[in-house]
Specification:
- The complex is a heterodimer of chains A (114) and B (110).
- In chain A, the strands form two sheets. In chain A, strands 2, 4, 5, 6, 9, 10 and 11 form a seven-stranded mixed beta sheet that branches. Chain A has a four-stranded antiparallel beta sheet with strand order 1-3-8-7, with no helix packed on it.
- Chain A contains no helices and eleven strands.
- Chain A is mainly β and 114 residues long.
- In chain B, strands 2, 4, 5, 9, 10 and 11 form a six-stranded mixed beta sheet that branches.
- Chain B is globular.
- Classes of the chains: A mainly beta (114), B mainly beta (110).
- Chains A and B meet through strand 5 and strand 10 of A and strand 4, strand 5 and strand 9 of B.
Chain lengths: 114, 110
């Protein structure tokens, strides 16, 4: 069966510090991968998605970047965090072929920038 | 206007009641419809998935889609305290993007 791992679960970082959040998927090959941010009462905002190694599409211009160095690994980064980067970050995967648009989410990372 | 509007709630119901959750959408290209359940401080968990108008049942859960009215619903029968969570509707036109509602928080009182 497929599983998705996201870490860390919580993170407190000072303004101006770098960020690296990691997401890995097991039990599937060539998944589509997604990073979302969830703000209270505002639903999920798509930040980045990737359909393959090294292929990244950005939905919202911002202080963050994403990379996909391996088939089942997706990384969210920032060189200098802003207060507004605080939030709940979710990684998701989707089969690239069958069962279109069914996305499965990780447990999330709660980021507090102080 | 948001692409997806979800009744904001919150909803508080007694155990055993029927919970009714609703979303409306404006994009007529949406053809895949999902409901996710999210417990506090956890990631969303897929509950129901459908791509056609009509009803789909899974245990105590029924998903309803009316494409002509651009309206979807989720019904929870015989609600339990363990159903207390935030419910998110999501939909897609078949590309890579899911559009989500803002979520409705449900509390089932024992």
């Amino acid at each position: 069966s497929q599983t998705i791992h996201q870490w860390p679960a919580t993170l407190v970082q000072p303004v101006g510090s770098p960020l690296s959040l990691e997401c890995t998927v097991e039990g599937t090959s060539n998944p589509n991968l997604y990073w979302y941010r969830q703000a209270a009462g505002r639903g999920l905002q798509l930040l980045f998605y990737s359909v393959g190694i090294g292929q990244i599409s950005s939905e919202v211009p911002q202080n963050l970047s994403a990379s996909r160095p391996q088939d089942r690994q997706f990384i969210l980064s920032s060189k200098k965090l802003l207060l507004s980067d605080s939030g709940f970050y979710l990684c998701a995967w989707e089969n690239s072929g069958r069962a279109k648009n069914i996305q499965y989410f990780g447990a999330g990372t709660r980021l507090s920038v102080l | 206007q948001k692409e997806v509007e979800q009744d904001p709630g919150p909803l508080s119901v007694p155990e055993g009641a029927i919970v009714s959750l609703n979303c409306t959408y404006s994009n007529s290209a949406f053809q895949y419809f999902m409901w996710y359940r999210q417990y506090s401080r956890k990631g969303p968990e897929l509950l129901m998935y459908t791509y056609s108008s009509g009803n789909k049942e899974d245990g105590r859960f029924t998903a309803q889609v009316d494409k002509s009215s651009k309206y979807i619903s989720l019904f929870i029968r015989d609600s339990q305290p363990s159903d207390s969570a935030t419910y998110l509707c999501a939909m897609s036109a078949g590309d890579y993007k899911l559009s989500f509602g803002a979520g409705t928080t449900v509390t089932v009182r024992a």
